[in-house]
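User: My instructor asked us to take a sequence, write out its structure as tokens, and then describe one feature of it. I'm not sure where to start. Here is the sequence I was given:
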Amino acid sequence: MIDLMTGAAALAIAASSPVDGDQLLADNYDAGGPGMAALVVSDGETLYSGARGMADIEAGRPLEPGTAFRYASISKQFAAAMIVHLVEGGRLSYDDQLVDLLPNMPEAWRGVSLHHLLNHSSGIKSYTSIPEIMMKTGDIGPVTTAELIDMFDDYPLDFQPGTQWEYNNSGYILLGAIIEDVTGKPWHVAIDETLLAPNGIEGIYYLEDESTLPILAKGYTGGTDTLAQPIHMSLPHAAGGLAGTLEGLRAWTMALHGGKIVSPRSLARMTSPTRLHSGETEPYGYGLQIEEVRGHEMIGHGGGIFGFSTFAYYLPSEQMFVAAMANSDGLPTGSMVIARKLGAQALGTPYPEIVAVDTDAAIQPGWEGRYEFADGVIRNFYRDGDTLYMRREGSRAMEVVGDGSGRFVYPGSLSYFDLGPDGETIRFHGDGEMEGVGGTRIGDVERAEAIRLDEAQATRLAGTYVLDVGNLVFAIEEDGSLSARLGDQPAIPVTATSPMQLVNEMLGVTFDFEMGVALARSVSLRQGGAELSGERVD
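Assistant: Let's start with the prediction itself. The structure tokens for your sequence are:
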């Protein structure tokens, strides 16, 4: 275990900013179901350590602070640090080409460097975006590193290296392969023997057989007592294959930021935003995100995998570590929200909490409307029956609740907004950021006007269309309405706004069809600024 020297700043936080983690967890999780464990440590002093819920519902085993969880994508920082360590030792260079580092790599990947793999700017297809793989994960494994790479190495680049940023699990599979090629050891063994054991870091595991770790929580799904889909840890590999305790992750974090794992210069590189060829930046370094918690710089990462949700970060200004881990992949309040709330409490600047009132008391005449913000975003705030929604144009509608004063929050989220008394001004606080973004009312809510398609019009659109992410099927229901289903996702109702356009307003998704002689020839799906197109196959 690595302890830091006690500092006056952290002691002041501990004395003046109590962390009521037990109440926060009790407010969000049922003691008899899957739940959450959390840890807050500032400058070596534990401000909170606790848990609520069950690690094994059937056996009646409760979650404890010492319970182990699948870390999921938090694992990426370990692989990144191992690569950085090898660069420091002169065995690799950030400019090394992937095709030169590993045998049998596609020539189309020439131009992808180690740097691009580390910061998600490679353009290589992320294997977790390939439906054919993700729909059968429970049946895959154990797999070798070479077999895993074979699953995605036939796909063309999504974009040229360094021109865009897109979160990419394939990149970290390839980094794991590079670690194995250079060290001659399995990626997780190299990390353990090179980085963890020499620094006395315990409580971090790679599990071929999860039953060998009794302290590991069972993973559930949907916030229920249903066990999550199984997955062998050779499939997430170096992108998310580690498991461990909160304390193990704390010891690692303190060692990493304390100069024990890589040099300060290398750590600065790991925690610097990615700069693309265009000059644009993305708040992600090497296996680590760079964000803020209530105005304080935050360096950390989250993770999501079948049965588990995790989030952990470090605040350099306060030498504070915060982590929250859940043994369910579908809880209404996720690990990121809990971790941020705990950190904000410790900082003495908690996120706003409201007592929600019913819809009639929450909203006043003139408050519904279309608002344009200083950052160019347009959002529609409106009532539908007894429910209030805020919808960013091009995205899905999100339910909100209010307290009657003009403040509205997104349940299970940190985001909130405040309306001026006359409804003409608004300030939106995404992820609970303190300053927020101001906006003004520019008109009434814009909602697509629905039309009814006759049988012949509906038949022209119904059918199967092949998209990169899976088959998109439009079906005519018994009542004559249309539904849309992508891959194995649930079908959603869609409404026609023209003979060649269908929408689902709640999800902010639009389908535009290009017509052939008798039937639609292709469709374009637009949602949240993204667009996918596909040809009809039947």
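For the description part of your assignment, you could build on this observation: The radius of gyration is 25 Å. Try explaining in your own words what that tells you about the chain.
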